[in-house]
Automatic annotation (TrEMBL):
Name of the molecule in the record: DNA-binding response regulator
Highest taxon in the source lineage: Bacteria
Domain Response regulatory: 4-117
SMART domains, alphabetized: LytTR, REC
Record GO terms (molecular function): DNA binding; phosphorelay response regulator activity
Keywords: DNA-binding, Phosphoprotein, Two-component regulatory system
Modification 4-aspartylphosphate occurs at: 55
UniProt domain HTH LytTR-type: residue ranges: 152-255
Keyword flag Phosphoprotein: yes
InterPro entries linked: CheY-like_superfamily (IPR011006), LytR-like (IPR046947), LytTR_DNA-bd_dom (IPR007492), Sig_transdc_resp-reg_receiver (IPR001789)
UniProt-listed PROSITE patterns: HTH_LYTTR (PS50930), RESPONSE_REGULATORY (PS50110)
Presence of the UniProt keyword Acetylation in the record: no
Amino acid sequence: MSYRALIVDDEPIARRGMRTRLAAQDDFEVVGECADGAAAIESILELKPDVVFLDVKMPEVDGFEVVAALKPEQLPAVVFVTAFDQYAIKAFDVQALDYVLKPIDGERFERTLMRIREQLARKQPDQDLAGRIEHALARLRQDGHRAYADRLAVRTDNRVRILEVADILWVQAAGNYVELHVANKVILMRSTLTDLTARLDPERFVQVSRSALVQVRHIRELQQGFDGDYVLLLNNGATVTGSRRYRQVFARLGL
């Protein structure tokens, strides 16, 4: 049996090194290479590899955002390739979620390949991968490692849109989706508000109600509303209702 592998890394020498290592395995076939996260998302959907060796730190769209942009049933087995230090990387060593630390150690890589073979032999999609990644990211943040998104990869129709987090005015929950309000447009993204909140820097975004997040720098004015609620006036003229239950947030902002 041959396992189809996709290599994703923004460094050409790293891609060549991974291809060489996989070429030495009789049961792995490299079906593609990508130099960035957006291309990785498209290649995963088009090529449907069994496993992706995914660099964590890449410009524009990083490895975490690649996983977040795909549905669980669209994800192959994922092996993160990273230069995080040994202490931080322990957060990723959970169940089927695996990692390879740069520079790659041959013995550790062999264990990773065995782990891949075992997972793929079960022929069951890893439905909980995204949840475990969020848990791992939370652990990294608690340990003082910055892991908040600067960009979001949003899949719309047959393309992937790269959205700067700084451009988001506010976010509205919509079931298993969120509405990202950018300038005078609304972009629909597949994510719960809880999951997206975990990916955004709490120094930049605050939750003002059960269903809304607002980026602090876009708040122009806070007005007293009815029944103790608040109305936030944003820089583009939009208004967002804030619940009185979140008044401690407004106090922290000095509003």
